[in-house]
Hints:
The chain is an alpha/beta fold. Helices cover 38% and strands 23% of the residues. The chain folds into 4 domains: 3-126 and 285-328, FAD/NAD(P)-binding domain (3-Layer(bba) Sandwich); 136-280, 3-Layer(bba) Sandwich (FAD/NAD(P)-binding domain), CATH 3.50.50.100; 330-417, Recoverin, domain 1 (Orthogonal Bundle), CATH 1.10.238; 470-535, no CATH class. The radius of gyration is 26 Å and the shape is globular. The structure holds flavin-adenine dinucleotide and nicotinamide-adenine-dinucleotide (NAD).
Amino acid sequence: LSDSSEADSKKKKVVVLGTGWAGINFLKTLKNPSYDVQVISPRNYFVFTPLLPSVTCGTLEPRSIVEPVRNIVRKKNVNIHYWEAECFKIDAENKKVYCRSNIAGNLNEKEEIDVDYDYLVIAIGAPANTFNIPGVAENCHFLKEMEDAQKIRRTVIDCFERASLPNLSDDERKRILHFVVVGGGPTGVEFSAGLHDYVKEDLVRLYPKVKEAVKITLLEATDHILNMFDKRITAFAEEKFQRDGIDVKTGAMVVKVSDKEILVKNGGGTSTMPYGMVVWATGIGTRPIITEFMKQIGQGNRRALLTDEWLRVEGCDGIYALGDCATINQRRVMEDILAIFRKADKDKSGTLTVKEFQEVIDDIRERYPQVALYLKNKHMRTLVDLLKDSKGDAVKGSVEVNLEEFKSALSQVDSQMKNLPPTAQVAAQQGTYLADCFNRMEKCERNPEGPLRFRCEGRHRFHPFRYKHLGQFAPLGGEQTAAQLPGDWVSIGHSTQWLWYSVYASNDVEVGTALKMSNQPPEKINILVCPEVKT
Length: 535
Ligand code: FAD
Ligand code: NAD
């Protein structure tokens, strides 16, 4: 062995599965050259998913929102190899992953690769969820991958061409030009808005004879669209869609899709709805390899792999999971929070003074900002407000908080907090966090000093992962976007659209192209936001 290959053979082997938000941010942040990294993913490019709906309507070209993986890895001083392949089995006991090559999208069963690892980073995302509803997989379009967006774009045009053929009945023409979107989450809403603009601004000019037959319907099973957003945004979106003529049907649960009709359960009954194209956007499910792996390691039948707050897969050695395929075990978070309370309760009376309790809250805010984010509980709110007013010393410990009250407050926080949302923001921050840990791994092993453990003796080498919520955007069409920023700040309107562009244009990907698409760039970008709805 030459000196360099001997040195290479001593390097710890890191295998990264996936080149989405989590995997790519891990690779971009990793700078410690003491690893030998193998990246395995069927996609040799990164997709900037927030702009994927724009590809369905031709506002953006696919190349504007992708970044080749090889471009990213060639710039690194870390030894990184990329294989265009798909992992089909993880063997945690023997620290091996089994993969099949995927050149030109053809999974070739003969070309199997098995790769050893010391550390495995699972970042393979999640597929669209069909809930096994009959006919969905066969008849619907999805909007998850670049291929999906390109297929939708072709199908929309095909529908207009087909509807323009002679000898069609009016009913048949209307059916063909009926575009149905299932799921009123951000994907379904954004796509409906984009499709509406595309039809109104471009297609009706190209196909004037059929314009009266076009209809867009958005079906949502619950009472409102954009449920995870502030009520003001939901109301604005519903009103805007009504003005635009997008037919929003809430309380409408799709239960079956055949080749030309959708069966919808609405209230007590069911009805059928003829369609020309359906886009299914009802959230995400689980990849079969993750389901298999969870069985193997005794995690049962869950949607996502359970990790601790250091993103380590529970019950495994050297395996990390991040992004949409993973979820942090909130039960343990709650246990830790209770442990913070118990630690502050020095006399073991089960009761804390306000001052002590304030320290507990500060500690929780520091360790778990996402808990603070979801602190909607009245009891906690009152206490926190009280503490803010008193600044901790005016009350002089006259108010006491007992453990039972605190537990009941937590249980409500727990149910509202649920898990971190499966978003690009979470995935990207997790990728960056984990690579930072890897960058410091050796140093930390030499000096194993870190934050004290709550549950047992000793110290952690790294801080747990802390999510920082930077806000969420929902483009609503007509150059209008709604933004919900931390602290319940809401902004809706044209200026928010430019805020949205500027946030995305500031990313590494060449999404600056998004800025070029408008004919009239604004003289200045107004990023003023306030807790009032601005239109
Ligand atoms: P992904 O980005 O899905 O990446 C998974 C990677 O794993 C891919 O490279 C895939 O090819 C690879 N892979 C799959 N199977 C295997 C396998 N067996 N072996 C190896 N590799 C595999 N979030 C936001 O925060 N803001 C937004 O505005 C936003 N807009 C969105 C718009 C759309 C249309 C969609 C669909 C999603 C949007 N999201 C948004 C959500 C966001 O895209 C996801 O949360 C994010 O992509 C999750 O990142 P990830 O790395 O976990 O998975
Ligand atoms: P989602 O889970 O957010 O919403 C899916 C919607 O479909 C829900 O409202 C649900 O009630 C509805 N639904 C489920 N089954 C149905 C059925 N059979 N019939 C009718 N309606 C049904 O899914 P999404 O919009 O695909 O988003 C997935 C994730 O990606 C979320 O975490 C989201 O925050 C994130 N995302 C964010 C943005 C953004 O920030 N702009 C954009 C897209 C996606």
